[in-house]
Amino acid sequence: MKHLLSIADLTREEIVSILDTAVSMHEVQDRDVKKLPTLRGRTIINFFFEDSTRTRASFEIAGKWMSADTINLTGKGTSISKGESLRDTVLTIDAMGVDMMIVRHPASGAPAQIADWVDCSIVNAGDGTHEHPSQALLDAYTLRRALGDLDGRHVAIVGDLTHSRVLRSNLLSLRALGAAVTLVAPPTLMPAGVASWAGVDGFETSYDLDEVLPRVDAVMMLRVQRERMSGGYFPTAREYAVTYGLTPRRLALLPDHAVITHPGPMNRGLEISAEAADAARSLVLDQVSAGVAVRMSILYHLLAGEGSTQ
Amino acid sequence: MTSHTQPSLLVEGADVLGDGAQDVLVADGRIVAVGAEASAQAPAGTQRLSADGLVLLPGFVDLHTHLREPGREDAETVETGSQAAAAGGFTAVLAMANTDPVTDTAEVAERVLDLGRRAGYVDVHPVGAVTKGLAGEELAELGLMARSRARVRVFSDDGRCVHDARLMRRALEYVRAFDGVVSQHSQDPRLADGRACCHEGELSGRLGLPGWPAVAEETIVARDVMLARHTGSRVHVAHVSTAGSVEVLRWARAQGIDVTAEVTPHHLMLTQERLVGYDPTFKVNPPLRPTEDAEALREALADGTIDAVATDHAPHVRQDKEHAFVDAAFGMLGLETALGVVSTLMVREGRMSWSDVARVMSQAPARIARLTTRGTGCSRATPRPSPWSTRTAWSRWTRPGPGPCRATTPGTGFS
Amino acid sequence: MTPAQNTAGPGREVLNSDDIDRALRRIAHEILEANKGPEHLVLLGIPTRGAHLARRLADALERVEGTEVPVGSLDVTMYRDDLRSQPTRAVEPTVVPPGGVDDKVVVLVDDVLYSGRTVRAALDALSDLGRPRAVRLAVLVDRGHRELPVRADYVGKNLPTSTAERVMVRLAEHDGEGTEGVRIAGPAEVAP
Questions:
Q1: Would the pTM count as exceeding 0.80?
Q2: Domain identity same for A19 and A96
Q3: In this complex, is the C-beta atom of A264 within 8 Å of any C-beta atom belonging to chain B?
Q4: CATH classification of the domain holding A153
């Protein structure tokens, strides 16, 4: 494993290995000395072309706890305004001898393109409306802690699926781990051609959240941006909340053991009610706590083994 | 025969339009005799060129070229672009109006014409903008451009769609006075905005790229066809890319509506699967479509529903192309590879004859653009009578250094 | 009484299942003697086989003294100095017993002592977990060829080897019933 660009590039075994290692990494979080020497002397650039406090902090802590030198760079708007191409920008950084770039970019596919251009490892920390592999892995980790093996479990993913990179990565990882998946969204927020997506099958789609909820082991609520209303994706926040929100009434439809996740940031009152967000079965804070452990495991898998030298 | 300003040329044994080997005598840039008479009439001092096994075709006319000058001479100039055209077998090109300044006045049009003459490789005919500054709000000085030395007959806001139906209607009516044609970039901006860059469907959904749905093209083609019927004017559909547009065109022709259409080599040859690796080389507008669309385009070109092949040759400097896919510039090169694509895909695979190639790459585009001559061309370029060996010309017209991104290189782009 | 000799696998058997048990019992006695009883003792096995040996050693101590000795496991993967010369290693769990390691006498348990690098990594890992009063080392086999100044306090068997040979420890818990034993194989006998 040199890069982490898409969950589609991982085998089930590799996913499981990352999740298993994350268990050991999670234990470090409870220690007084939160430091492993594993990546001593390695340099990791957090190259964020788009704001993301949470993901950036999580990767930065992961790198630091593993003794790597981590440096944050903000690429937002700089390259185009300077007349420099994205390729020039990343080659400049690569030439400094870094071992890894963790790339967040508003454009789908940018990390994959960068991986073609540079020598160092590339981690996709979220690209446009394409993928967010580390988020999907920490979601899978959180669900495994709550539910055990995900093989044969049923997960509903609900929200703005069209514009969600979390959806694409999660669909791939949950299917790889053997979970059944139901995608729930209004037709306008269902991604183009999703029913025939290459490389993934064994999932269904639904427009009826009430019908789906009693059958799930977990429900993953995705953020819905209010700006989507102006694009005609749905009429009003009220209508969305009533039709697709996880309201107190819907909370009662879930089986007793079923859990709730949300990658954040949450729009309370829109896709998720306060009652659902704060329910005992809500794993939202567990997800955040798992984020560092899973990202440590990702760094370990990409940088610690053979062939990961420059 | 008039007095010779340059020696006559006897092309020996060329397969003329694929109808069999003949000798052809050229004097003063014109074919004066074909067959047995040709060698009989050849005066002393005639240059002889053996064309054994090669096909002889008329010079090509490209309805759709971006030469970038004035404004982006770092990407391409009239000189380098027309060199590329000559290398690709073209003798005349229509230079699109989206330069800086935009070709929306007679002055800019004449300047482009003069730049082409000074370069001297092929005839360069400026295309006039339909609207001032391509802004889609007010008509440009269509009549003055038509009356200028450049004799502009083709008008296009290419890169942008003349979206306002009323403005499109007026433009169509207005250009009738001088037998002009509006070449429409069919893209409903509400259905496919400036970020749209991947055919909307399974692939755009999976890759997370902004979708460019076929219907955004088809609704405009359908509307323009009805406007052409209503106004009795000529409309030309630039870079047709979908099977649905082909259906509309086929219907329109059956109705006797005066509509013509062009297809690019890349939409004939390439399909959307090229986008899987997010390589901006393959970012074109309209986007590469699924195989079924490409197949419909090939069929439509063969049966005449689509009149012409036009390159949409769109050079860019490297730094405009080497961005994230959605941020990179649209466009691919085409002048040097057009014939290679058409001969491989249409002739070798038995869909078209060589005389069909002459029709779609020379006669039809010249007729649509109302050219009085298809160009004398190549006066300063080395004559390259071998029509499908344009591959050898690939590197020759590449500007050195950070020049135009030669989007498809032999062996990679069209492999 | 003698169990069926295990003849599976390449090479020559140097310890059978009974020999292993006897060695662990002896080590248990030596630990108790040196420590003057079971107080403050914590056993930490180095996964994977060291962790199983540590549990067996804890059982042996309990049989002798009647008190339970805290036992856990200490994965040293993240502290190794050879990570980049090998494919990515799977990480095993680190389990610290509830009382922690501060002010304890920690006995590290591993199957084979060779270069000493694993023990070096274990000492580093241990120092990140706390500050033991003392650290001891117990190994089933010491095969020599140290690359670091490391010495075991308790040894099941000293086994002279050449560096070309391979020492294979198999334990019932990990490798299955009937496979248990320590074998030594020459380079030609070891599958590539």
A1: yes
A2: yes
A3: no
A4: 3.40.50.1370
